[in-house]
Amino acid sequence: MLHDPVLTDKLSSYSSIEFSGFVYRVTANNAEPCAASSNGGRWALPERDGLTIPILYTSLEPEGALAEVASYLALLTPIPQKQLMLHTIEVSTSNSLKLLEVDLCALGVDMEHYQEREYLTTQKIGAALNFLGFDGLIAPSARWECDNLMLYTDNHELEHKLDVTCSKEKDWFSWAQQQGIIEAAI
């Protein structure tokens, strides 16, 4: 996979950070909470021609994790209403990048349309970060007023933490209605 050399040079100029703390993830009841996805998303290209970027999407706030999943599930017809699992995961990284809104703008992300599902620019950034060996990205959530942590699991070293510390059922549908993500039934 070829990466834009201008983009990789810009990303290489940022200082990496270590992260250690708790993050949150929402999954189906029977899903493995620390399983990475290769389906793509905002910060990873979907699998193509056998090439994949395994990524674990998490949030620094429980509401952030709920909002990310609720915004997706609200697009489905009919909207599923099964309870989901909210997981607390202790994680550590050694080579992560924290991008603020100003950084995203400088990298070509249109913040006025950040909430939309137009991922090409952010996917290129994510692919370049993975290529450069970053193990994590901390960036603003598009769905909640918090940051998310995305782990590039191929680069996440085995000695770093990735441990589920708590899992509990969550009525995401009622929560999403209370937050105005899904309209309340009349």
How many strands in all? 6
SS content category = alpha+beta
Q: How far apart lie the N and C ends?
A: 50 Å
Rounded to an integer in angstroms, the radius of gyration calculated over CA atoms is: 16 Å
Main sheet record: 6 strands, mixed
Coarse morphology: globular
Q: What percentage of the residues does DSSP assign to strands (E)?
A: 25-35%
Stretches where pLDDT is under 50 for at least 5 consecutive residues are: none
Total count of domains: 1
Mean pLDDT: 94
Q: Work out the helix count.
A: 5
Question: Under CATH, the topology is which?
Answer: Diphtheria Toxin, domain 1
Return the CATH class. Alpha Beta
N-to-C SSE series? HEEHEHHEEEH
CATH architecture label name: Alpha-Beta Complex
Helix content: 25-40%
Please render the helix and strand layout as text:
Elements: H1 5-13, E1 17-27, E2 55-59, H2 62-73, E3 84-98, H3 101-106, H4 120-131, E4 136-140, E5 147-152, E6 162-170, H5 172-179
Parallel strand pairs: 3-4
Antiparallel strand pairs: 1-3, 2-5, 3-6, 4-5
Helix pairs in contact: 2-5
Compact overview of the structure:
The chain is of the alpha+beta class.
Walkthrough of the structure:
By secondary structure, the protein is an alpha+beta fold. The chain has a single domain (5-175), classed as Alpha-Beta Complex (Diphtheria Toxin, domain 1). Helices cover 25% and strands 27% of the residues. It is built from 5 helices and 6 strands; from the N terminus they run αββαβααβββα. Strands 1, 2, 3, 4, 5 and 6 form a 6-stranded mixed β-sheet that branches. The longest helix is centred in the middle third of the chain and has 12 residues, at 62-73. The chain is globular, with a radius of gyration of 16 Å.
